Amino acid sequence: MLEFKNVKFIYKSGVKEPILENLSFKVEDGEFISIVGSSGSGKTTIFRILNGLEDIQEGSVEIDGQDIRGLKNYSSYMPQKDLLLPWKTIEKNVMLPMSIQKVDKDLQKERAIEMLKQVGLEEYANKYPKDLSGGMRQRVAFARTLCAGANLLLLDEPFSALDYITRISLQEWLMKQWLDVKKTIVFITHDVEEAIFLSEKIYVVSGRPITDIEIKEVDLPYPRTREMLLDPRIQRLKEDLIDKLRTTEEEE
Amino acid sequence: MKKNLSAIVTGAGLLILWQIGAGLAGISHILPRPTDVLVCLWNKREVLFKVHMVETLKAIVIGYLIAIVIGVLLAVIMDLSEKLEAMMYPVFVIIETIPIMCIAPLFVLWFGYTLSARILAIVLSTFFSITVNTFDGLKKINKESCELMKTYGAKTMQLFWHIKLPTALPYFMTSLKITFPWAVIGAAIAEWLGANRGLGYYSKLMVSKLDGGTVFAAVLILSVIAIAGIAVIKFIDRKFVFWRSDI
Ligand SMILES: Nc1ncnc2c1ncn2[C@@H]1O[C@H](COP(=O)(O)OP(=O)(O)OP(=O)(O)O)[C@@H](O)[C@H]1O
Ligand SMILES: [Mg+2]
């Protein structure tokens, strides 16, 4: 279980006003959570704190009751850009987190191939990123994220740069991946429909600083289909979320 | 291909003009025809290739390798330490613009008619540019990639091997393409100034003997060395450094 406890955070550079203030929330193991909120509200900041890239000023962030500052490899981050290294083959890119963690070479290769199979790209193992389409590169980036070996996956708008059709097919694909690998996924998105389609719960962040999170449950069974989104209840949820985002946008 | 073809036509045209013009002038000891140059190249092939070209190549290879090693090392050092960067980088950028060859006569005073003097000339005329370009390349790293690597737990050395070096490599290769001809010119001039062997020395000797054909023959070999060197660098670049456009 992931838990933010009364967290306060201010960036050391830039405006010295807090981004997070006395913020508390939980994510249970195995959940699929989406975080939505207007641009610049601090969603990526939450991930940067979780990654250990930023240090909080007050409160604590805990995984299963232990402060993350004493932990390693508890989360893997997938940024918006795939950030595949153009000088490495697809396989070497996927192996990268394991190579950093000095995993045994044979095991690295074995796991990388396994992950590439999982994302359906094993025949591209020896190709380079430039040979792949945007959607394929995003799948490779996901395989690389899985190879970091953590149970908590932090996905920061991974599909936002893709065209609509690729995006919805990757959403369906990601849902299957999640049902398969049974890891905890926290997924940042701007796209309300994407959040509803994928997640069990939607965390709406708003305000500067962010002081609390409003949680919306998405009451749909898995595996989900696009038709389920037409359900009037879901339509109402969608309108409701859009309204929330719009009012917070206007306040700022 | 079309572009090459028109260049070939222009080149051939100029050679023909030269051939006819020099023929009319009738002073082949100082203005030889292209055919005279080829004849000299053939007649003097033993000395030109076996003695002088070997000597020049020796200086170029040793000097250029030293320049590459020093150049890359300095770039890496400046990249590791901001203090050293602040101390050295601006100085290098200025030195890069100084025509080193103008002080080459001093090297001869320091080292005499030795290989060391010539190697020094080659090193000094090339390594600043290699340092500056490679250093600029090291600074071109993608911050987000580095952060991602840090989330995997990457240490400084790992960042260096996985991200920094590959990012800088295209810039390093570019610096080689630019500086290799300077190494050849540097070698030739240094030999002019103080040597008793080498293509530069030999061409100077032949000027004093009024043997224009052989002067041109030596220059022709120097050009071929420069062109061949660049071709090799370009080949390596295209084959192994294919990510230039993706950085
Ligand atoms: N490294 C940084 N230093 C200083 N301020 C920062 C830094 N990164 C982000 N900020 C500021 O913190 C605020 C929150 O940024 P953050 O990137 O977390 O927003 P976000 O919700 O992810 O936005 P978006 O939806 O556009 O990605 C913004 O106002 C931003 O300007
Ligand atoms: Mg963001």
Short overview:
The complex is a heterodimer of chains A (252) and B (247). Chain A is of the alpha/beta class and 252 residues long.
Key terms:
heterodimer; A: 252 residues; Rossmann fold; B: 247 residues; mainly alpha; 2 domains; 10 helices; binds adenosine-5'-triphosphate; binds magnesium ion
Please tell me about this protein's structure:
- The complex is a heterodimer of chains A (252) and B (247).
- Chain A is α/β, with parallel strands linked by helices and 252 residues long.
- Chain A is built from seven helices and ten strands.
- Chain A has a six-stranded mixed beta sheet with strand order 6-7-8-3-9-10, sandwiched between helices. A four-stranded antiparallel beta sheet of chain A has the order 2-1-4-5, with helices on one face.
- Chain B has helices spanning 2-25, 34-43, 45-80, 82-96, 104-111, 115-138, 143-151, 156-193, 199-208, 212-240.
- By secondary structure, chain B is mainly α.
- Chain B folds into two domains: 1-29; 32-240, MetI-like (MetI-like fold).
- The A-B interface holds A 51-53, 72-73, 75-77, 79, 81, 83, 85-87, 96-97, 99-101, 128-130, 148 and B 142, 144-145, 147-154, 158, 162-163, 166, 169, 242-243, 246-247.
- The complex binds adenosine-5'-triphosphate and magnesium ion.
- Magnesium ion (MG) is lined by residues 43-44, 156 of chain A.
